[in-house]
User: Which sequence fits this backbone?
């Protein structure tokens, strides 16, 4: 695994560096394969990244947007990951709705996981997967002590019925499916994340450390 770590003293440089890296991968992917498949993360940390990402110059019609996980809440709910992504990024872009693959979590975890598995057949490999990391080492909706989907026969999408953080019902890409990414980028910010980021760097066993890219795995940490 090619692991790279980037540490920043402020959130602006943190976001700018991530956006530059995404833009770099997008250019290569579009030139070599005709499309750029990116997995978006939820949570607070990616918001500043998304607000800057929408300003880059790129061939937006060639982008395809996926989601690493989703909360089982009504469509358009303020706490959904796709709602945040739309309000901070997607609503500002010249992209068609067919380019955005939201997880239909309003259907419930079991039905939504089955439907999203069908969508994923159009993307055998993601180009970039953005992931957060919780203080307990969880990423997407893969929590310690729960099913991670890391065995050879694991499904691409997991129905999460008992997440330790509300809401308990969620849908998440499995560990195995997230590893089908050319580059995995972990994003973490704030003093409370410092310890878990150091543990991730050291390779301590946790849900996040079991996910790595086919070519690159990168950890971005902002102290504030």
Assistant:
């Amino acid at each position: 695994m090619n692991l790279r770590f980037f540490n920043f003293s402020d959130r602006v440089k943190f976001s700018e560096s991530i956006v530059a890296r995404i833009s770099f991968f997008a250019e290569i992917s579009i030139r070599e394969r005709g499309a750029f498949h990116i997995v978006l993360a939820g949570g607070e940390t990616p918001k500043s990244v998304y607000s800057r990402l929408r300003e880059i110059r790129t061939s937006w019609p060639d982008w395809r947007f996926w989601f690493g996980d989703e909360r089982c809440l009504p469509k358009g709910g303020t706490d959904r990951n796709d709602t945040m992504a739309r309000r901070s990024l997607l609503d500002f872009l010249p992209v068609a709705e067919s380019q955005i693959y939201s997880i239909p979590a309003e259907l419930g975890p079991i039905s939504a996981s089955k439907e999203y598995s069908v969508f994923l057949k159009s993307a055998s490999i993601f180009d970039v997967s953005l992931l957060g990391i919780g203080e307990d080492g969880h990423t997407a909706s893969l929590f310690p002590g729960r099913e991670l989907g890391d065995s050879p026969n694991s499904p691409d999408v997991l129905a999460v019925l008992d997440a330790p953080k509300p809401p308990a019902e969620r849908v998440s890409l499995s560990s195995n499916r997230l590893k089908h990414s050319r580059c995995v980028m972990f994003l973490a910010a704030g003093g409370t994340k410092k310890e878990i980021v150091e543990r991730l760097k050291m390779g301590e066993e946790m849900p996040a450390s079991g996910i790595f890219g086919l070519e690159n795995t990168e950890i971005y940490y902002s102290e504030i």
Observations:
- The chain has one domain: 3-222.
